[in-house]
Amino acid sequence: MDNHESNLQQVSQFKAAILGFQHLLAMYSGDVIVPLLIGAFLHFNAAQMTYLVSADIFMCGIATLLQLKKTPLTGIGLPVVLGCAVQVITPLETIGGTLGVAYIYGAIICSGLFVFLISGLFAKLRKFFPPVVTGSLITIIGFSLVPVAVQNLGGGNASAKNFADPHDLIVGLITMAVIILINIFGKGFFRSISVLVGMVVGTVIAYALGMISFASVAQASWFHFPQPFYFGTPHFSWSAILTMILVSLTTMVESTGVFLALGDLTGRKLSEKDLANGYRAEGIAAMLGGVFNTFPYSTFSENVGVVQLSGIKTKRPIYYAGLFLLILGLLPKAGAVATVIPSSVLGGAMVVMFGMVGVQGIRILQNVDFNKNANLLIVALSVGTGIGVTVYPQIFRSLPQAAQIILDNGIVVGGFLAVLLSFLFSLTGQIELED
Predict the structure, then answer these.
(1) Structural domain includes residue 434
(2) Would you say the pTM of this structure is higher than 0.85?
(3) How far apart are CA 435 and CA 428, in angstroms?
(4) Is residue 433 part of a domain?
(5) 53, 70, 345: which is closest to 211 by C-alpha?
(6) Fewer Cβ close by (within 10 Å): the C or N end of the chain?
(7) Is residue 435 part of a domain?
(8) Which H or E run includes 82?
(9) Residue 229: which domain range?
(10) Residue 150: CB atoms within 10 Å
(11) Name one GO cellular component term (predicted).
């Protein structure tokens, strides 16, 4: 770690707030897209959409604070930010389209309870995550998200006629260049907020090019407080509940990778109890999401890259990020301001951040003995398959829908393959599992 990064571990409140805002911007667009897509699919009117987006952002703040604060039963206690995972979009649309909105929230509540109850058991899988598995999983998480970043760099919608418009490429590449230049020539705190500065510069240029409209800000209301069962009393269906339980298992695998990545970054060895507390916090967050008619919440991979780039590994900035999320959730007009940031600006920043997450996985793999064929095969097959499925998730489209829910996620496929192979090789003594 550079000296300036070490000195910044004890940051002032003002600097912590700025760093927290940087974390917020890194996750904001990825989270807002979930209520926007699901609300549009369910044909929500303007008032319903306003509630859904605002309540979602507010609950992101609640979920983040639940995970930050360690208690005897909950909280991973790492610099994590929580949001709604994109893998819930298709299952929730299916449930809402076939059974109705009320069944969405019944399924979310039950899946959150499921996560809470199996957290201790799931945490016992920790021994199946030796460095070769941990490094592979984190590498998959980082590099499998790069295509999403590149798609955003081109404007967000690859099927649109104006995809890869020169304006999008210009602001995206400028955003990326600013982040890189600050990390080359910047010093101290300025280097720590390189992502924020890059996104601000990119957004200003996008505004000058006429790419930004503030219509959504003008239409948003000033204040909106989340209400329990806003869309009605939850209804329950076994098919919907099972679907969301399968989804929750995929998010638990992904969260495990993020927890282990941050544990490695912060120099903290995570125990089974730590992991169980982290899962329970996500389970409670999901149940609250069902009660307030939003979504299940899990740990965002995006923010690992922010921690890596900023060099600030304390939780104080994340507390500010959680507080800002609560405020934005209560003030839809203020929250709408963050949505005007063009996808191409976010994409430029994401390419850097996701790449950093992937490199973090490679750093862990540097400590793996690759003279053993077993380790070579685990990394080659898990990383290759994980990224391959991410690019072509339709490879499993002939399988039952329940199987597709799990196998469409390249991170889950690659992670499961790494764990399975490490277990099989351990049976023959070719590798050793964690104690």
Answers:
(1) no
(2) no
(3) 17
(4) no
(5) 345
(6) C
(7) no
(8) strand 82-83
(9) 3-427
(10) 17
(11) plasma membrane
Which amino acid, residue 45? N
**Tokens at 128, concatenated:** 């199946």
Domains in the chain: how many in total?
1
Q: What is the pLDDT along the chain (435 residues), one digit of tens a residue?
A: 444 444 445 567 888 888 888 888 777 766 777 787 688 788 787 678 778 888 888 999 999 999 998 999 999 988 888 988 777 877 888 788 888 899 999 999 999 999 999 999 999 888 888 888 888 888 888 888 788 888 889 887 788 888 888 999 999 999 999 989 988 888 777 777 788 888 889 989 999 998 887 776 777 778 878 889 988 889 998 888 988 888 888 788 878 888 988 888 888 888 899 999 999 999 999 999 999 999 999 888 777 777 877 777 888 889 999 999 998 889 877 766 666 778 888 888 888 878 887 887 888 898 888 888 999 999 999 999 989 988 888 898 898 877 777 787 787 788 889 989 998 998 888 887 765
Tell me if 404 is assigned to some domain: yes
Nearest CA to 378 among 410, 414, 428, 406? 414
Please, are residues 41 and 96 in contact by the beta-carbon 8 Å criterion? yes
Maximum C-alpha span of the chain: 65
Q: Looking up tokens 């959680």, which residue turns up?
A: 322
